[in-house]
Structure formats: structure tokens, C-alpha cells
Design goal:
Length: 263
């Protein structure tokens, strides 16, 4: 099982939409057994996957994967361990249990390692123990971001934050952790965003996801939020906008799968 965590220290970047649509891609297009864990108390991934009814929703809440030793999950090809708002919000204040949270999550992933091909973990944008635990146990991290100066300036924290910086975690705790890349999302064809993409490509080219031409990015479209609201893969939205969006998104997801060595 290959585990990837979607992490960003800023909300509103469309992270959950990427997580859900990527999960649909792995399961419905690639035919993989997929586990989705939602640690974001906003529960956007959980809402979309529950609405769609394609995934089996575990009876176990996501917080339990951190607070207890869990030895398994429902026997299904596509499983969601959904976020539970109240308990997840309590995590950061339980400092004396933080080490056990990461240990419990790692134990769970080891227990289900042979039951799934891919695990996708959606995290909250705050640099807290939920995000840290996820980074400590994952193989890969994917970081969607919007093309604004605040987000670009935040790339340094993503890499070098004292607590959840990817480089620090890789060096000190989880040497297998690899950055798939920064993924510009909700990209609009405005001069402002083009300039920011150019700056990103100039200064952070090694952190972007290379494509045959240029770097991976996902354009802003009404189709993705509509698909999320309906709980369906964007290519099954039944609209021209959905098909057009998928034509642009599919090569990006195929590249991510290649980097993760999911075949």
C-alpha cells in the first residue's frame, strides 16, 4: 500500500477536492483498492464521498485511528474513514498523547497494508498533531496551493517548519517521505496568476510536478465543485464542463500515480 497525505498550511486551496477526485481516479479508473482517511474537521472529503455512495463508510471515526490501536477496517475495495469534528479538534490540546497518536496511526496502516493499494489522507490546514502524525507515517506528500503571493511565501514553511516541515520530518523521523510536488490548483488565466506561476516555476521548479510540457496544474472550473457537491467523479458529472475538466486533470493524476509507483 502506498500512502500519500495531502497537506497545506492554508485553507481554501481545493485540497479536499483533489483528494476525493484522486481517490475516484485510483479506484474507478485504475481499479485499485483505496482507503481514504479524513483528518480535517471541516469534513469536506467525508461529505463528498458519503454523498456519492461509491465508498464504503467505516463505522469507525477518523479520530479513533489516532487515539486507539486499531487492527483493521471494513472489508471493501473502497473505504472512507470519515472525519469526526469534535474529537479531531481536541487532539492538539492533548500534548501528553501526541507520540501515541502517531504510533497508533502507524500501527493501523501496517495492519491494513495488504488490504489496500493506495491510502489517501486528507489533513486540516493547521500545522498540528493530525498533520504531523500523517506526515510521519506516509510515503508521499502532495501539496495543492493557490497562485497567490501568500501561498507562495508559505512554501518555506511547508518545507522547513520547525514542527511539520517536510525536510525536518524526512531527516529526523520518516526517511521514506517524498514530496510528490506542489500542485497549483484553481488556476485562472489572469495576468496576476500567470505572473505568480512564472515566479513559482522560476524559484521552485524542483518542487513542481514536471509534465511532458511545463508543470502540472489544475485549472479553476465550475465542474469540480459541482462534482464534489454531487459526490461523483468529475468525468461522470454529465456535463461538457465535467468532460473538459477531466481531460485536463487526468494527465496530472496519471503523473501522480507514476511518481507513487502505482501501476
Amino acid at each position: 500500500m502506498k500512502t500519500t497525505v495531502l497537506a497545506n498550511q492554508k485553507g481554501g486551496v481545493g485540497k479536499s477536492a483533489v483528494a476525493v477526485q484522486l481517490a475516484y481516479f485510483f479506484h474507478l479508473i485504475m481499479g485499485k483498492r483505496v482507503l481514504v482517511i479524513d483528518f480535517d474537521h471541516q469534513r469536506n472529503s467525508s461529505k463528498a464521498l458519503k454523498t456519492g455512495g461509491i465508498a464504503t463508510v467505516s463505522q469507525m471515526p477518523a479520530s479513533r485511528l489516532l487515539t486507539h490501536k486499531v487492527g483493521g477496517v471494513e472489508d471493501a475495495e473502497f473505504v472512507l474513514v470519515a472525519a469526526d469534528n469534535a474529537e479531531l479538534l481536541k487532539m492538539e490540546k492533548q500534548a501528553d498523547r501526541h507520540n501515541s497518536f502517531a504510533s497508533n496511526l502507524q500501527s493501523f496502516l501496517q495492519a491494513v497494508h495488504n488490504d489496500f493499494d493506495v491510502c489517501i489522507i486528507d489533513t486540516n490546514p493547521n500545522p498540528d498533531i493530525r498533520q504531523l502524525s500523517s506526515l510521519v507515517v506516509s510515503d508521499y506528500v502532495l501539496s495543492p496551493l493557490q497562485l497567490n503571493q501568500e501561498a507562495i511565501d508559505g512554501i518555506g514553511d511547508l518545507l522547513n517548519h520547525d514542527t511539520i516541515g517536510i525536510r525536518k520530518i524526512k531527516a529526523a523521523i520518516n526517511p521514506k517521505l517524498e514530496l510528490i510536488g506542489i500542485l497549483p490548483n484553481l488556476v485562472e488565466p489572469t495576468p496576476f496568476q500567470r505572473d505568480n506561476f512564472r515566479e513559482l516555476s522560476t524559484h521552485f521548479a524542483k518542487l513542481l510536478i514536471p509534465m511532458d510540457v511545463g508543470f502540472a496544474a489544475i485549472k479553476k472550473t465550475t465542474a469540480v465543485p459541482e462534482a464534489q457537491a454531487a459526490g461523483v467523479p468529475v468525468w461522470k458529472l454529465g456535463k461538457t464542463s465535467g468532460r473538459d475538466a477531466w481531460t485536463q486533470i487526468k494527465p496530472v493524476f496519471e503523473k501522480i500515480a507514476s511518481i507513487m509507483e502505482v501501476q
